[in-house]
Amino acid sequence: MSKSPRVLFAILMTLALCLSLAPTVFADDPDPLLIKEAAITKLLQVPYGTKIPDDMIFKFEVRPVSMNRATETSLLQTMPYGTSIDDEGRPSGSVEIDFGVEDMPGITVGGISTWYLESGSLFNANAFPHAGVYEYRIAEIPNTYPVSTTTSPVEVITWSGAVYTVKVFVTETTDDEREIYAIEAERTAADGDDGDTLGKVDPTPGGNTEGGTSGSGDDGKADITKGEYEYSQMTFTNTYYKTNVKDRDDLEKGDYTLAVSKTVNTGDAGLGSLLMPFSFALTVKAPSLVPGEPVFTAYIIEKIAEKEYVVSDEPIEFTSGTGQTFSLRHDQCLAFIDTPVGTSYEVGEAGATNYTPGVNVIYNGDGENNSEVSFTTTGETDKGLYLPGDYTESKIALYVGEGKNSADFTNTFENITPAGLDINDLPFYGLILVALVALVTFIAVRSRKRYKHYVRVSRKTTR
């Protein structure tokens, strides 16, 4: 035998020996990380400032698929979640997550708040009939929250399309006790356009900061830069937004979703104009959860008494993200009737000669349990005032909340003194006048003394 065949034979024998020593892996062997608990996480994405309805509940179908690969209905009915029969005659159970709670964990990024809640642990070892491999299919049950589509608030919700296959590996420790040896969860269908990838996920309750598959979680909080997370990754994502729609009758009472108003302070001398129009620029942007480029409707309304307004006949339409100009005079405002909660905006007023602009922005005001935010600033005389512009701290208020939302501009006319007389110079004029009076008096006295002296001299000479 030549050298080359001997070398090849040695390599093949070594490979065969390695394969013989490797552990046998079957299709139903568990993940070596041996996750022992699983929970469902509901992620709810809403525009900033959106109040979640108290009766919002999400439901999930947990459907038995097989027991040790067997799929007979009689066997599936002995599995946890197998006691009920669905509309298609299959054993099935369900899990609920109630979002009508306070102090939910969440985070707000880019005007979108993401709230999350977990279910309880899905599986109890002793609920399984015996040792084996149990497979489930978990998906969201849609339309469990009835949205309002015709009356205010008008609501829109999207339901999750995610689907998970979960395998539970159960062992027996005694005749009466069982133990979950491992749980595997695999995402087989994604939510939609959210970029979720398919494949195995970590369903550990509390995420990997509480004993999951990766990440340190030393302080009990997730560090996303290290790949950590605070909840089970068996997630179902929904989006929800709403619009507190108004009509013309509401506008007549000064009730709107967003308004830009104008007030003129005529100054001490009353020289400011209550009839002069002032120019504004406004860009309204719908929350990113709202599809397309919606068009919003506004009217010019004019105040005639407290909470009593006259509404213009013609609406003004604003396309989301597109700036537009308009004019307002004293006691007028541009009022919207259909901007969704979480809508953001940028607004500004052009400069007007001899007027000093100021603005007070109110977010989510006038209502019980509303967390009102406000921002106030004053600009420079003769110059425009634009938000956010240099006033970055105003951004938090430039949103549409559940309550009243407005940018109220006030222009103050600066006093102008008629030409030839400046009230600031009056003290100096007074001093000059006093000096002139004193001078005239001095000259008159001197002249009188001289005159008397001349008379006396003339009389003496005559004698």
What would you call the structural class?
mainly beta
Q: Average pLDDT, to the nearest integer?
A: 84
Radius of gyration: 40 Å
Q: Main sheet? A: 8 strands, mixed
Low-confidence stretches: 17-27, 211-220
Give the percentage of residues in beta strands: 35-45%
User: What is the highest CATH level, the class of the largest domain?
Assistant: Mainly Beta
Distance separating the two termini: 176 Å
Total E-strand runs: 24
Instruction: Determine the fraction of residues in helical runs and give it as a percent range.
Output: 10-25%
Instruction: Compute the number of structural domains.
Output: 2
CATH level-3 fold name of the largest domain: Immunoglobulin-like
User: What's the CATH architecture of the largest domain?
Assistant: Sandwich
H/E element order: HEEHEEEEEEEEEEHEEEEEEEEEEEEH
Number of helices: 4
- General form: elongated
Query: What oligomeric state do the depicted chains represent?
Result: single chain
Task: Please specify the SSE layout and strand pairing.
Elements: H1 3-21, E1 41-47, E2 57-67, H2 73-76, E3 84-85, E4 91-98, E5 106-109, E6 112-118, E7 132-141, E8 154-158, E9 163-172, E10 178-189, E11 199-201, E12 235-243, H3 248-252, E13 258-265, E14 278-285, E15 295-305, E16 308-311, E17 316-319, E18 324-328, E19 332-336, E20 344-349, E21 355-365, E22 373-378, E23 385-387, E24 404-413, H4 426-462
Parallel strand pairs: 1-12, 13-24
Antiparallel strand pairs: 1-6, 2-4, 2-7, 3-4, 5-6, 7-9, 8-12, 9-10, 10-11, 13-19, 14-18, 14-20, 15-16, 15-17, 15-19, 20-23, 21-22, 21-24
